[in-house]
Amino acid sequence: MRALFISGVFLGFGNYYRMLREYTAQREDIDAVHVELHTPMWLKLAAKSAPFPTRGWDFHALRYLWLTRPMIRRWVFGPLDICNRFDVVHVITQGNALWTLDLKKRCPRVKVALNVDGTAEQDIEVFGFSRAAKAPFVRAEQKMFDAADLIVTRNAWCTGSLRADYGLTDKKIHVARSSFKAPRASRLDRSMTPKGETIKLVFVGNAWERKGGPQVLRVHQERLADRCELHVFSKAAPRDDKARNVVWHDVVARETLMNELLPSMDVFVMPTKVDQLPWSVLEASSAGLPVVTTAVGAVPEVAVDEETGLIVPPEDDDALARAIGRLIDDPALRERLGRAGRERVERDFNPDVNFNGLIDRLIGLVDGAGVER
Q1: Is residue 48 within 8 Å of residue 41, measured between CB atoms?
Q2: SS3 assignment for 159-190
Q3: Using CB atoms within 10 A as the burial measure, which of 139, 273, 304, 334 is most buried?
Q4: Cβ neighbour number for residue 250 with a 10 Å cutoff
């Protein structure tokens, strides 16, 4: 099968793209070409979001969708010669896939698979975006989803919206979770920090505001600075060297973070306000850390309350402080939650299963086998 993978590589999409490259390279039954989408400066400026919440009225996602259509269309029907060279195209995400409508009209033989982690309807229903502001994007999504041959979701949470809001059947949906190989090292490789000793709390997230970074820092400084040491990994965090018992980390390689730094911590905290399935929660759980987070989006697929972590309401300082305090005082709870989290990631987010399953499904799409999940 001749496959073209066009992938946005910003934020967590880059991790998924790298795993796709690794697994397609291992297969002899697929000839894969990968194209990375790096947003040019003019497009960043033209589709820039407002610096304050607008509930979608800045239309930045819609502007990006419209502007990428002629740009990508010029590539795929020009140098890439998609109609003659490929059997299937896999696109991450629907936000840069409006051009696939042109592809299905011009080259109906080429199969289209759209890879998504959430929908505009979920932005409205779950995250409070304006329905009127999001209406044009919802209509565009409906057209793209109807025209595509397959919708690939990176979490199970998204599938409910695809069925209820867009009328898709299970036959057209394939779940290929965000997955990666668990790190060699784990917090479980050494004994738990005893009660009464200072533990290490860690926050990882470049979207400092959206991921709840200010709340973590505030709660730590006002209530927990004498009981735990906070480690911050974030390019966007406003570094304050006067903050008590806080360690500000520079940008580090992901390999270093996963195999050295995360296993040296005790508790991961990220009270995110708007999210689908954050890679950082997956990564912390894979390193054997109990997680304190919120139940937004698909987060509960990884962080299960009282099983792999502790769930708190968004923007609730009291609940966040109580949850962290419980873990500070209870080493056995830390170990139980951390161990269950690592086991869950190894079982449900296994890349051998998820990425090979996706490739098999794409092959079935092309040869007409109709492979279903």
Answers
A1: no
A2: HHHHHHCCCCCHHHEEECCCCCCCCCCCHHHC
A3: 334
A4: 7
